[in-house]
């Protein structure tokens, strides 16, 4: 049984690991499942063959036998459910880890994506400089709350889980903004995630595809 995921033929981030296939690669590396990657161009993502798998014409997708999935959260959850290593056995602890996955995607990531959009796509607008502090403060608000909850703990709720995988992945998108540096415990938390051998393997695998070539 071969697991096949999709990723950008060439990620716009040039190999920084910020495209969402890295989250899926990381989950598969954590549970020790081999996988293959089908690289897709922006054009191919909007073609019928890919749209049959992903109705919104995006990456990543996940195929395993007759199962086809899209949405990174659903894919990571599926991997975590089917294999040992990303969710605790205890039912309540498992529910808490799943809650953190949702919190990462539904509560922490939205203001971060708003900031990314403001920085990349709206910086040339006349109102951009006026709006930016509001957008940054919404991110700071969430980071402050998360920072207080994490405190001195290593991970969000006991042992490393799919909740941490998702939260670290979401926070990584903030690195370029410098905002993460305002919360030393969150910076250290993200660094712990990046130091995991499974993350390193996932990162290196996407870098091998996306590394900018000289010349
Ligand atoms: N909700 C979906 C999920 O979680 O799977 C969102 C999927 C998604 O946003 N996919 C993006 C995509 O396919 C790639 S990951 N975009 C192409 C399109 O919509 O046509 C988002 C992403 C893209 C680029 C960077 N980057 O360059 O830093 C980071 C993250």
UniProtKB/TrEMBL annotation:
MF-aspect GO terms: transferase activity
Pfam families given in the database record: GST_C_2, GST_N
Presence of the UniProt keyword Cytoplasm in the record: no
Domain GST N-terminal residues, every copy: 8-87
Domain GST C-terminal: 90-213
Alphabetical list of PROSITE patterns matching this protein: GST_CTER, GST_NTER
Assigned keywords, A-Z: Transferase
UniProt-recorded name of the protein: Glutathione S-transferase family protein
Native species: Mesorhizobium zhangyense
């Amino acid at each position: 049984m071969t697991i096949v995921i999709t990723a950008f033929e060439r990620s716009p981030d040039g190999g920084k690991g910020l495209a969402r296939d890295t989250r899926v690669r990381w989950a598969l590396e954590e549970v020790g499942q081999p996988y293959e990657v089908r690289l897709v161009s922006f054009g191919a993502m909007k073609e019928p063959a890919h749209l049959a798998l992903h109705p919104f014409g995006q990456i990543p997708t996940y195929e395993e036998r007759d199962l086809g999935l899209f949405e990174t959260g659903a894919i990571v959850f599926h991997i975590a459910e089917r294999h040992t290593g990303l969710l605790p056995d205890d039912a309540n602890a498992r529910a808490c880890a799943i809650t953190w996955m949702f919190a990462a995607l539904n509560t922490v990531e939205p203001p971060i994506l708003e900031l990314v959009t403001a920085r990349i796509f709206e910086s040339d607008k006349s109102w951009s400089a006026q709006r930016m502090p509001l957008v940054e403060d919404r991110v700071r608000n969430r980071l402050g709350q998360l920072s207080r909850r994490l405190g001195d703990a290593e991970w969000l709720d006991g042992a490393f889980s799919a909740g941490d995988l998702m939260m670290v992945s979401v926070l990584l998108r903030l690195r370029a903004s410098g905002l993460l540096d305002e919360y030393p415990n969150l910076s250290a938390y993200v660094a712990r995630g990046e130091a995991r051998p499974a993350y390193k393997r996932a990162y290196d695998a996407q870098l091998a595809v996306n590394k900018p070539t000289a010349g």
